[in-house]
Amino acid sequence: MLVPVLVAGLAGCGGNPRAPVEDRNRPASSARPPVLQSQRGPAPGEYRVVRGDTLYSIAFRYGFDFRALAAANRIAAPYTIYPGQTLKLREAAPPAKPVRASSPAPSTGVAKTASAAAGGKPSAVTKGSSGSGKTGSPAPARKQPAPAAKPPAPQGAVSRWRWPSDGRVIRGFSATVHKGIDIGGNRGEAVRAVADGVVVYAGTGIVGLGELLIVKHNDTYLSAYGHNDRLLVREGAAVRAGEKIAVKGSSGTDTVKLHFEIRKEGKPVDPLRLLPKR
Question: Do 213 and 246 form a contact (C-beta atoms < 8 A)?
């Protein structure tokens, strides 16, 4: 009886080993699922366009000249941008300023516009005696050149600024802290364009300014109107100086007021230096 039992035991030892048992209660140490990398945000010095942005509003937000921002990102007029587009927030070389036509240098002789003598040649006047031999006649006073015609206003000039709203200035300008002026008043009062221009931004995308309008007056000057209750014009609308473009309110703040800015080549300037005295 003992021999069969030993044989059976040896036969059991010579079979295939059992498969290892997996402990399902212990977390696997390998074969972790791949971690999906989230979409990379914009790098330092970059900005990702969101719905409602315009090139002008982005330039305004970061204090760039819109032309410099467009040049840095190779964006041509009319400066269309798209949600998800990444812009480099660096200034390109500032655009060359147009050379103003200088007045002609005063001539040392007779002006070329003077009338010609009978012989068809311009008459020349010399000091001393005349050609007839007569002496004592004083030489006629040399004619001054005719004043040059007044050159046209440069592209960046605004012929006349107007106040954007009635009301008292309740906060002044600071280039670093408060880049415009605040004008107090009552809710519902008119907000008007300070000069002719085109609306290049209308919306609430710039934090802290509520319902905001930005108007481009020319390639040099922009004006901005913040904290409105209601905007009366849309992006792309041409506006005239003095035209009602918004209604004064308190959007984005706790006080009824108009926050007003003027930017020259992207940089804030004190509006009180440009607006007429009152």
Answer: yes
Look at residue 133 and give its three-state secondary structure.
coil
Which residues does 219 contact at the CB level (< 8 Å), separation at least 6?
Answer: 67, 95, 155, 156
Task: List the structure tokens of 188.
Answer: 């519902």
**Using alpha carbons only, what angle is made at residue 84 by residues 83 and 87, rounded to the nearest 5 degrees?**
100
Between the alpha carbon of residue 10 and those of residues 1, 4, 14, 16, 19, the distances in Å are 15, 10, 6, 13, 20
Q: Are strands 244-248 and 211-216 parallel, antiparallel or unpaired?
A: unpaired
DSSP string, 32-87: PPPPPPPPPPPPTTEEE--TT--HHHHHHHHT--HHHHHHHTT--TTT---TT-EE
Nearest 10 degrees: CA dihedral of 101, 106, 108, 111? 80
- Which of 233, 227, 98, 270 has its CA nearest to residue 216? 233
Q: Which two tokens stand for residue 194?
A: 């300070």
- Provide the 3-class DSSP secondary structure of residue 11: helix
Cβ atoms of 241 and 195 closer than 8 Å: yes
From CA 53, how far away is CA 67, in angstroms rounded? 16
pLDDT per residue, tens digit, the chain (278 aa), is 544 544 444 444 455 544 444 445 555 444 454 444 445 667 788 999 999 999 999 999 999 999 999 999 999 999 999 999 999 997 644 555 554 544 444 433 333 333 333 444 444 444 444 444 444 555 555 555 544 444 444 466 788 999 999 999 999 999 889 999 999 999 999 999 999 999 999 999 999 999 999 999 999 999 999 999 999 999 999 999 999 999 999 999 999 999 999 999 999 999 999 999 98
